[in-house]
Design goal:
Blueprint: H1 19-24, E1 31-32, E2 34-40, H2 45-55, E3 63-70, E4 74-81, H3 84-87, H4 91-94, E5 101-107, E6 125-129, E7 132-142, H5 145-154, H6 166-174, H7 180-188, E8 193-200, E9 205-209, E10 218-222, E11 225-229, H8 232-237, E12 241-245, E13 251-255, E14 258-262, E15 272-273, H9 275-280, E16 286-287, E17 290-291, H10 292-306, E18 313-316, H11 322-332, E19 340-342, H12 355-359, H13 361-365, E20 366-368, H14 370-373, E21 377-382, H15 389-400, E22 405-410, E23 423-424, H16 432-435, H17 438-445, E24 449-452, H18 455-461, E25 475-476, H19 478-481, H20 489-493
Parallel strand pairs: 15-25, 18-21, 21-22, 22-24
Antiparallel strand pairs: 1-23, 2-5, 2-11, 3-4, 3-5, 6-7, 7-8, 8-9, 9-13, 10-11, 10-12, 13-14, 16-17, 19-20
Length: about 500
């Protein structure tokens, strides 16, 4: 087994890039950057991590990695392109990852070279320090990574990846603190942006959330051991009990003394990503003490109250629009129906994506239930509209199937601003809502009506009865409001213009 820190100087091409989805017009969704998972205190911890990563696959499907530690064999790692099920279910691979402590990561390439991910960009990252080795997996985005990287390179650091997360390892290496948790605290004080970090030493599992708590991280108990995860659904798959969420600005160090909690950063008002409730998290997870499924159903109810329409059927755009469509149906009294069927096995087309095949792209993924749709006035409920390309094609499919009318109801406010905190968002001029009014979008999509839930309505659905507090919002809603809780320093240096203060 090669040492954990070995990285190829010339990385192989990624056989699992997602450019084919762009070719087929199937990538018109915002994508979470990654998911993290870690386990300590159980035999063959890497097997539990593999199961956890499988449950978090929706948070990243390009690549995954696991690092484990065994008292006799030391650190070991495996990093692969593609799905967890295709790489970390092999007994041959899992036998190379022994020990009672392991962490893992699944990713999309929102940083680095999109669609050109190299194996050296696949986390967890590993570093060897004077007091021993440490591995780190990061969910989020460091908004001052460019300036940090320039500074570190000028001081002699040699980067082996294009990931912003590697900055944390180099900052830890330059810290003068006594142990690895303290070095991590020291490093993260230099970091701006959003981060949920799961890390490990040879004897400790570490979890950290940024002071705003933008990205999720939870703690679970499994037998005599412990687990850290991006979402509670991954605790369920390994039979772990959900204990609590890691608090914004909290660091937990789990070792022989159990769980030790620290709050090393300046306290700030939390700004958890509200889009986790709308789309990113799995519907069977719990966020902030609330069921994601129930929140999405509540979003549908709010949407029906705000934007009623006379129609025959309420149909979700599967799968993310399903709970909101059920809520819309229950509130409006209009029957719910599966008017669109999703092919769960869509992947690389076996045909070269010519123009003809590109035009069929959405049909490879979604198919209309013609017998149900014909002659009906249909309400389509989707989670968001980004570029609008997929929405137009779905509308055309519904009309081709004989629908009398097509009405879109969207379970999030218009996405008019890019996210810089760990979500793969197009540039602002590529976002439909950044360049068009709601009526202009309706005309562009050629639908009978188009309505988005209001920002106040979304806040009510996630439990804020009075809607959004404009002076102090509880959530990060920058993709809707343009109000960024952390200044995106690197993007400003590249010419990005923030919303003018009101």
């Amino acid at each position: 087994m090669p040492p954990c820190s070995s990285l190829p100087l010339i990385p192989p091409a990624n056989p699992f890039d997602t450019s084919h989805l762009r070719d087929l017009g199937l990538d018109d969704k915002l994508k979470e950057e990654c998911g993290v998972f870690g386990v300590i205190g159980v035999s063959d911890a890497a097997n539990f991590v593999a199961l956890g990563l499988h449950a978090l696959q929706h948070r990243g499907q390009e690549a995954g990695g696991i690092v484990s530690h065994d008292p006799e064999q030391g650190f070991n790692n495996a990093r692969r392109f593609g799905y967890v099920r295709d790489n970390f279910t092999s007994q041959k691979i899992m036998e190379t990852l022994p020990g009672p402590l392991a962490i893992g990561h699944v990713r999309y390439s929102t940083s680095g070279s999109k669609g050109q991910t190299a194996i050296r960009d696949v986390q967890p990252f590993f570093g060897e320090f004077s007091m021993g080795g440490a591995a780190i997996a990061h969910n989020g985005n460091i908004t001052n990574a460019d300036s940090l990287k320039r500074e570190l390179i000028e001081r002699g650091s040699i980067f082996q990846s294009s990931s912003d997360s590697e900055c944390i390892i180099h900052l830890m290496a330059r810290s003068l603190q006594r142990n690895i948790p303290e070095r991590m605290e020291d490093a993260l004080r230099r970091v701006e942006g959003a981060y949920s970090v799961v890390a490990m030493t040879q004897s400790e599992l570490i979890g950290v959330r940024d002071p705003l708590g933008v990205r999720p991280l939870v703690l679970g108990k499994i037998g005599d051991g412990w687990a850290l995860s991006s979402e509670t659904c991954a605790l369920d798959i390994i039979g772990a009990d959900f204990v609590r969420e890691i608090e914004p600005g909290e660091m937990v160090v789990i070792g022989s003394k159990g769980v030790e909690s620290h709050f090393p950063f300046r306290k700030q008002d939390p700004r958890f990503c509200i889009f986790e409730h709308v789309y990113f998290s799995r519907p069977d997870s719990i966020l902030g003490g609330r069921s994601v499924y129930e929140t999405r159903e509540a979003i549908g109810r709010e949407l029906a109250k705000e934007s009623p329409v006379d129609a025959d059927l309420v149909c979700p755009v599967p799968d993310s629009g399903t709970p909101a469509a059920i809520g819309f149906s229950l509130e409006s009294g209009i029957p719910y129906a599966m008017g669109i069927i999703r092919n769960q096995y869509v992947g690389r087309t076996f045909i070269e994506p010519t123009e003809q095949i590109r035009n069929m792209g959405v049909r490879l993924k979604l198919n209309v239930n013609r017998a149900l749709i014909r002659g009906k006035r249909v309400i389509l409920v989707d989670d968001s509209v980004v570029r609008g390309t997929t929405s137009r094609k779905i509308k055309e499919m519904i009309l081709d199937a004989g629908a009398k009318e097509v009405h879109f109801r969207i379970a999030s406010p218009p996405t008019a601003w890019p996210c810089f905190y760990g979500v793969d968002t197009p540039q602002r001029d590529k976002l439909l809502a950044a360049t068009m009014s709601e009526e202009e979008m309706r005309e562009h999509l050629s639908v009978d009506s188009l309505k988005f839930i209001s920002l106040d309505g979304l806040y009510r659905a996630v439990g804020q009865a009075g809607g959004r507090n404009k002076k102090c919002p509880q959530y990060c809603d920058a993709c809707f409001s343009g109000e960024y809780p952390v200044v995106p320093a690197d993007m400003l240096a590249k010419g990005f213009e923030m919303k003018a203060a009101e």
